Amino acid sequence: MRSTIAALATTILCSFSLTPASAQERSEEEIAAVRNAVFNDPETPVMGNPRGKTVLVEFSDYNCGFCRKTMPEVAALLKSDPKLKLVIHEIPIFGEGSRYAATAALAAQMQGKYPEFHQALMSMKGKAEKASVLRVAREIGLDVERLQRDMESRRISAQIDRSLALADEIGLVGTPSFIAGDRAVFGYLTTDELAELVAEARAGQ
User: Could you give the 3-state DSSP secondary structure of residue 14?
Assistant: First the structure.
């Protein structure tokens, strides 16, 4: 199967459904814009090495069971690969609680605590919703009053909407979804499988 990203270079090997939008003929400029949105949106959170030349992109939701299961695998990969940059697109597809959690996570960037908060939210037990999200925020030392004020930013809402629209445009079928180079994979991945995905991207650079 193919998605918009497949046309960015060669072919994307993935298990994503082909959407009508991604099946249309696109200009080189449109394809470049999509690729840039996936890998280089300056508003999108980054973990790992911010200057890393090899980029792994994750689309995730805090109420996604497989996202939570994959988080330790991603963390292990980042620890073992200090040259890797991880870009995270927050796509809250599991309801209001997911949207609240994604908004809070992005607001935590303003306090310099996105990585800690992201990992804590992915490690929590139970559903991510207002009460549990704010509890986790307090536990990791965030200024919760400031966090709630920052969550009202239109920039954060717009950022989430951009990532959701991007996921639709490239034909993602769910979370977690990972993209590196010209290959994309949907679902739970082990550290070794993630490392293989990254290695293929490096080989193609």
Answer: coil
**What angle, 0 to 180 degrees and rounded to 10, lies between the N-to-C axes of helices 130-139 and 96-108?**
30
Tokens encoding 135: 């509890």
| pLDDT tens readout for residues 98-143 | 999 999 999 999 999 999 999 999 999 999 999 999 999 999 999 9
CB 197 within 8 A of CB 178: yes
Alpha-carbon dihedral 176, 180, 185, 190, rounded to 10 degrees? -70
CB of 176 within 8 A of CB of 59? yes
Q: What is the pLDDT of residues 139-195, one digit of tens each?
A: 999 999 999 999 999 999 999 999 999 999 999 989 999 999 999 999 999 999 999
Q: Which run of H or of E encompasses 110?
A: none
Give me Rg for the CA atoms of the chain. Answer: 16
Among 140, 87, 89, 135, smallest CA distance to 117 is for 140
What SS3 state is found at 162?
A: helix
Q: b/e map of 4-38 (b: 16 or more CB within 10 Å)?
A: bbbbbeeebebebeebeebeeebeeeebeebbebb
Angle at 61 between CA 113 and CA 159, to 5 degrees: 65
Q: Are 170 and 130 in contact (CB under 8 A)?
A: no
